[in-house]
Design goal:
Elements lengths: L10 H49 L2 H22 L3 H4 L2 H22 L5 H4 L3 H24 L3 H19 L11 H27 L1
Helix pairs in contact: 1-2, 1-4, 2-4, 4-6, 6-7, 6-8, 7-8
């Protein structure tokens, strides 16, 4: 027989202790909920500004793109600062999604306007959000390449294709399971198809122009 007795348990003391612990957790979750609501609202603003900046770049409205990027930068800085107040939220999916949208707009802007590629450390975000943004930006580069081809700017389209290829081949070497880099492998697979389609279209346009 065990050398203890459940009759020794002081239920009243346990109940008092439990009330203190649960009250502590309740306060923590209440603050987390409030912070989460705040992050969701500011996250929507960041995603909206990201989309506006990308669309402005496609329209060739550089002034508007810069304005949206600057506003997005400030909101993202505050967003990250607040998200880091709670480790549970900082590592949550929705925070990652917001930061991947931010990364997409920043990467596209820096590549086409400045000819540089900031790292995830430069942007102050996690590596997975960065990789997801990098995967998505290839679709935006394809859109730009198609615009160039419609204007018969073949050299510009070829350069964008080279950038897409460089991104694809570097991302392809990351052979890790989805549990370690969620969504990234799928984006790389999509990028492969976009790359092939863009190459085929470029060859068609070049053949037509040369013929």
């Amino acid at each position: 027989m065990p050398e203890y007795s459940v009759l020794d348990i002081d239920v009243d003391e346990l109940r008092r202790r439990l009330r203190v612990v649960v009250s502590d957790i309740d306060g923590l979750l209440s603050r987390r909920e409030e912070l989460r609501d705040q992050l969701i609202k500011s996250g929507r603003d960041i995603i909206r500004l990201s989309g506006w900046a990308i669309n402005a770049l496609h329209r060739g409205d550089i002034g508007a793109a810069e304005k949206y990027i600057e506003e997005m930068e400030e909101k993202t800085r505050v967003f990250i600062e607040n998200a880091k107040k709670d480790s549970f939220l900082w590592h949550s999916g929705f925070v990652n999604n917001v930061l991947s949208e931010y990364a997409e707009a920043r990467l596209l802007y820096d590549i086409v306007r400045r000819g540089v590629l900031p790292s995830f450390r430069d942007l102050g975000i996690g590596e997975i959000a960065y990789l997801q943004g990098l995967g998505d930006v290839m679709g935006e580069l394809r859109r730009l390449a198609l615009d160039m081809l419609r204007q018969e700017k073949v050299k510009e389209a070829e350069r964008l294709l080279e950038v897409m290829e460089a991104m694809y081949y570097e991302l392809r070497v990351l052979e890790y399971p989805d549990a370690l880099m969620p969504g990234v492998r799928h984006k790389v697979d999509v990028a492969r198809r976009l790359l092939d389609d863009t190459k085929a279209l470029l060859l068609t346009v070049k053949s037509r122009l040369c013929g």
